[in-house]
Amino acid sequence: MNDDFPIRDYDHLTTGDLQHRIRSLSADELRRVLEHERAHGDRTPVVELLTARLSQVEDGAEPAGGDQRNTPPADSAGGKPEVSPAHSPDPNTPLRHGVAGQTPSRGRP
């Protein structure tokens, strides 16, 4: 997708993210996004969302401020989750029935 498309990383956004990002688009920009959606994914919930917002703008709703082309990429983690052994739980066996005396081998293989 080219740099002048109204929403950055459009094809990677969830419907929830898209719902927030379209609030700053003008009617012409919404029509362009809707045209792109119908030509490519044609996802019913997205088409309905775009159509509803376009109707609101055409009925006088003002677009929110901001330029969606300046937003951070949709996948800011680069596709890699931020997980390390430091975030893992303690490697121990949970207590049976919550009583330590009933699990004499607790924590041992």
Overall description:
This protein has helices spanning 15-21, 27-39, 44-58. The chain is an all-alpha fold. The protein has a domain at 1-63. Helix 2 packs antiparallel against helix 3. 13% of the residues are buried. Residues 18-56 form the DUF8129 domain. This is DUF8129 domain-containing protein.
Question: How is this fold's topology laid out?
Answer:
Blueprint: H1 15-21, H2 27-39, H3 44-58
Concise account of the structure shown:
Residues 18-56 form the DUF8129 domain. With 109 residues, the chain is mostly helical.
Largest sheet: none
Shape: elongated
Q: Low-confidence spans: pLDDT under 50, at least 5 residues?
A: none
* N-C termini distance: 54 Å
- Write down the oligomeric state: single chain
Q: What is the CA-atom radius of gyration, in angstroms?
A: 24 Å
Order of helices and strands: HHH
